[in-house]
Every structure is written in structure tokens, then in C-alpha cells.
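Figure 2 data, in text form.
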Amino acid sequence: MSKRDGEVISGYLTKLGAVVKNWKLRWAILRKDGKLYYYKRLAAFGSTDPQGVLNIEADCVGFLDWTDISSQNMVTWPSNAAQDSGFALKMRNGRVFFVHAESAVQCRKWLQAIRSVAANIRLEPGQLERLEAAGNGDADSEGAAVAVAAADAAAAENDEESSGDEEGEVTMRQGGGAAAGVERPASQAFVHKVVGGTVVRSLIK
């Protein structure tokens, strides 16, 4: 989806639930008004009500990067989380909002975008250096990661519609799970492979 007026960055983020500690794939949009909107599926801003909104500009006071989180064993990342792709937002009310992006490159882009709108954010020692050094992967790997995330989102949405889940949650298993972390019936497991720059999704029988 192309960037729209008023948008700083958008893309898929996988967030850790505040109550039920499962990882859930969400489409997220950070706008110039400093608010982060997230949706259960890909959506244009204003086309549908968001599932949630974070006021980054007013309420985000800091962040934790992959190194901070992993060194303190704060969460167990899902098996499909790329190295250095995760971060957490520290909110004024005390909540810590854990997410991971599609890749280390995307994580860096999200953190830079968040810093650009968050007037109250404070960096801990070493974070700026790690942020500038992180995500220097090649373009092919980045493109493959984004394509796999898009394929997973489409697959998860199809599974969600066929399963009759009342809340429509795309549930990710914490610390592991089926292909790309999307929880599916035991009889349906999928694998993604990048072949010649194209993501191929196959059913494992």
C-alpha cells in the first residue's frame, strides 16, 4: 500500500497482547499527528475503525530495542521474528508495548519514524548507536521479508474467515508455532519459500 497524505510510515507489526499474551499480526499506520493506529487487516486510514490507537507524540516516553529486551529476558519472541526486528514502546501510563517488524531494516525505519513524532522520548545509553547500526541488510532480503509478511497476512485472514473466530484475531504463538508463527489447525501447515524473488506458499500434508 502506498503512503498517503499525513502518513509517516505504515506496515505490518506483530504485537504482544496486553491481556492474553499471544502475538497478533496487525496493520499499523503512524501519522504525522503522532498517533499510531493499528488494524486487524490491511486498511487505508479512515476506511474502517482501528482496533486500537496509541498517542505516540504525547504518551511515548522511551523505547527498548532488541538488545535491551533480550538481555533482560522480558519476552520470548515468536519463532518467525527476525534477529533485531523487535522493539518495545514505553508509555507514560507504565505500559510497555512489545512489537516486532518484518525485518531489522523495517524495525529501524519504525523507530526512526517514532522518534520523529515523539517529543518526549528519551534514549538510553547505547540505543542511538545501535539504532544507526541496525538493519544494514541487503535489499533482496528486505524485499523477501516484506513479501513473506504480506503472504502470511493474506493466509491468516483466509484462515480467520474460515474458522469462524468471533473476534477475528490473527493469533501468533509466543515462542514458536506453525509456519511463520500463524496458528492453524494441526491438519493445515504451510511453508513459504522465496523462489526467484517470488514467495511460494505450499501446504504441508
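Caption note: The helical segments are 56-59, 66-71, 104-117, 127-133, 139-163.
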